[in-house]
Amino acid sequence: MLGLIISIIIIGLIAGALARLLVPGKQNMGIGMTMLLGIIGSFVGGFLGKLLFGADAGDGFLQPAGIIGSIIGAVIVLLLWIAFSKRRSGNRV
Fold first, then answer.
1. Which among 35, 50, 84, 88 is most buried, taking Cβ atoms within 10 Å?
2. What is the pLDDT of residue 56?
């Protein structure tokens, strides 16, 4: 169980960092938020993989397709975060 949690944190950090590198512009996030971005992106990528391709984690946790899905999910979450934060800050007086 501890190994699973540590691997989720490490993959989350890697996926979040790669998503931040792929999305242009400055994102004001620390390491913790980058890790959270990657973890949420992993869930989004896993959900999209299951929805589109019928793939799941039954074949093993660390797969190249799972890591790529995590990065894609993290990019989607980051783009949504940027869109909502711009929209929210534009309404302030």
1. 35
2. 60
Whose structure tokens read 């993290």? 74
Give the tokens for residue 69. 């899905």
Instruction: For residue 13, give Cα distances in angstroms to 30, 38, 76, 84.
Output: 11, 6, 16, 22
Question: What does DSSP assign to residue 57?
Answer: G
- State which residues form the domain around 40: 2-90
pLDDT reported for residue 27: 85
Which whole number is the average pLDDT over 8-33?
Answer: 89
Contact assessment for residue 44 and residue 73, using Cβ atoms and an 8 Å cutoff? yes
User: Using CA atoms, how far apart are residues 91 and 43, in angstroms rounded to an integer?
Assistant: 30
What domain count does the chain have? 1
The yes-or-no verdict on residue 77 having pLDDT over 90 is: yes
State CA 78 to chain mean position distance.
7
* Mean pLDDT (the chain, rounded): 82
